[in-house]
Amino acid sequence: MRIWIKDPLAILADGAERGFVVENGTIAELVGRGGEPPAPVDRFFDASRHVVLPGLINTHHHFYQTMTRAHPAAINKPLFPWLVALYPIWKSLTPEAHRLATRLALTELLMSGCTTAADHHYLFPGGLEDAMDIQVDEARKLGIRMTVTRGSMNLSKKDGGLPPDSVVQDEDTILADSERVLSRYHDARPGAMTQVALAPCSPFSVTRNLMRETAALAERFDCRLHTHLGETKDEDQFCVEMFGMRPVDYLEDTGWMNSRTWLAHGVHFNDDEVKRLGHACVGVCHCPTSNMTLGSGLCRTQELEAAGAPVGLGVDGSASNDSSNLMEGVRHALMINRLQYEVGSVTHLDALRWATEGSARCLGRGDVGAIRVGMQADCAFFTLDELRFSGAHDPLAALVLCGAHRADRVMVAGEWRVEDGLPVGIDLARLRAEHGDMARQLFAGGA
Questions:
Q1: Average of pLDDT values for 234-244?
Q2: Which of 77, 126, 234, 424 has a 20 to 30 A CA-CA distance from 366?
Q3: Domain spans of the chain?
Q4: pTM for this one?
Q5: pLDDT, tens digit, for every residue of 353-410?
Q6: What is the CATH number of domain 2-54+375-423?
Q7: Which of the listed CATH numbers 3.40.190.10, 3.20.20.140, 2.30.42.10, 2.40.30.260 matches domain 56-362?
Q8: What is the C-alpha to C-alpha distance for residues 178 and 117, in angstroms, rounded to an integer?
C-alpha cells in the first residue's frame, strides 16, 4: 500500500512541499513543490489542514510518577527533599498501578505528537519484578516505539545513599534481570519497535561497581546507557563527599564516558566537563519543565552541541513536570533557552530539532527523527484551528510560539495511532477513571 500524505499546510522537511509517500511503514518518496509521486499511489491523505512534523521523541521520563502528580508531600521542594518525600510513597507501587501509569503516560505522549518514548524505570519494590515486561506489553498494544530502560538502585539510605531500603535491589538481582530483559526484548535493527537500555538511577542511589558492571553488560549486548547526572548542586556535593570526585569524573571512572551514554538533565557541567562530554559524544537530554519545576537550573544546550554532544528533549517524570506532553516541552525549551542565550540564537526550529533529530541521536537511532526517504514513517500532524492560532503567519513557528499541545493525528510506522485527536483503541474516560482511582487508593495517604 502506497499512501501519499498530500499537500500539507506546512512540513518540517526539505523538498517535501507537496508531502511524501509512505510504503511498508517507511518514507518512500518526498514530493517537492509542483511535483507528483513518481509511481502510482493506492490512496492519499489530504493534509492541507495539517502542519506535519517528524514524530517527537521523548528521551527521559518516569511513567510511574503519573500516580503522584501535584502530591502535597512534594510540591514546592527542590530535588533532594522532593525525593525524600516521595520515596516512601512510591514503595506502594503495584504491578497494576505500574501498568495503568505506563498506559496513561504513553497515551498522553502519543496525543502530544510523540512517536518514540524512553522511560527510566528504576523503582522495584517487592512484587514488581516484571516491570519491564509490563511496559513492553503496554507499548506494543498502543503501537508506539519505546526504549525501555532497565533502571536500578542498590545504594540505600543505610549505605549512604538517598532511597529507602524498601525500593532498592541487590547487584546480582539487577544484573541478572538486566540480562534477561536485554535477551528478550532488545531489537537493534532499523525500524525496531522495542529497544532496551540499561539505566542505574543516579550517583546517589547506585554503587560504583554496579555502574561498571552495567557498562560492561551494555558493551556485550550493544545497547545504550542512561542515568541522571549533573542535575543539581547537591548532586555535585554528594559525589565529591561519597566518591572523591565530581559527577563527570565519576562517569569516566566507571567506564561510561562514550557514545553509548545519554544523560538526563546535564545542568551543572563546567566548561572543561562540557568539552569532555562533547569529545566523547555523550548525549544529554534537556528537561526544561522539570528543571523549572524543581528549580534545578539551566542546561547549557548551545555549549554542549558546539562541543559535539547530542542534545535531546524529555518531559521527565510526571511528578516533576505534572504532565507528559512533549509538544508543551518543546515550547518550554524554547522559552527557557531564550533566558540563557540571545533571543535570535535560539529559534523554534532549534527546539523542534532537539525533540526530533537530537533525541534520536541520544537514543542511538538513525531511522527516526526526520522526514526523509528511507526513514520510518513516524509523523505528528497538528491543525491550527484553535483560537490561539488565529492570526499566525508562520505555521511551524505558530506550533511552538502559540502553544500547540495536542496533535490531531499521529502516525507510527505508517499506521495511524491517533485520529481526530483521539488515541486509537483507548477509552480515555475509562483510563482516566481507573488511573485516578488507583492513585487515590495507593498514594493519597502518603507513607
A1: 93
A2: 424
A3: 2-54+375-423, 56-362
A4: 0.97
A5: 999 999 999 999 999 999 999 999 999 999 999 999 999 999 999 999 999 999 999 9
A6: 2.30.40.10
A7: 3.20.20.140
A8: 19
